[in-house]
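Thread: Modeling a multi-component assembly for a lab meeting

Hi all, long-time lurker, first post. My supervisor asked me to bring a structural picture of a complex we are working on to next week's group meeting, and I have zero experience with this. I have the sequence lines for every component (228 residues in total). Could someone generate the structure of the whole assembly? Inputs are pasted exactly as I received them:
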Amino acid sequence: MTDILTLAYTPFLDPLDLHRGWWFLLIPLAIFMSIAWKAVRVSSFQAFWRPVLVMSLQIVFAMVALAVGAFLVVGLLIPALG
Amino acid sequence: MTTRGSETFQPVAAVLAYLVPGAGYLVLGQRARALWVFIGVMGLVLGGTLIGGIDVIDRHRDNSVDGDPWWFIPQAGAGPLIFAIDWVREYRLKEEITPSISRVNEVGTLYVVMAGMLNLIAVVDCAWHRPPPRRRPGAAPPGGAA
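Re: Modeling a multi-component assembly
Sure thing. I ran the full set together rather than chain by chain. Output:
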């Protein structure tokens, strides 16, 4: 079944089958966002990868922290209160 | 990014920046900035349409059936390419595409939304920008410096 689905896959017409690992897609999203944002903001493009890498890591860590915070509130705090 | 006080209104750069991501900076003589803006915005557009298929760009969505059509507004910030993809999806490939659902659709939509919003920031930056450096006759063309 998987082979049939793989053969039938057409890029850009069919979505990727990433329903289980969709959250990995945050990493390229953070990288491309950082490239576009830092390209507008920086004054020099020497070692351009450095601010891009820092901003990408900041985005990923912030999203992980938000996920942990949401889990603590929704999964632990609210059930404990209720 | 320019220093405050030296900016003037650059309508041609702003229009070009909307039509093709990064092109406004080319007019302003900033080739490196133009290239990286293009890579960032187009990477998000291509990434989003690869992840969720071109179904993630859809201004004809019915809110009660397949989601919110309002996502198209920030997506449109990435330029005419978004309108072209939407037209092709609606009038040329509607029968061939597989509708994306759930997280894959949401993440793909988010990619293109971020592309549109970031390109609008680049458009605004080009619209109020330091004028391009004037070249003296016979002088070498400026390099890729921003």
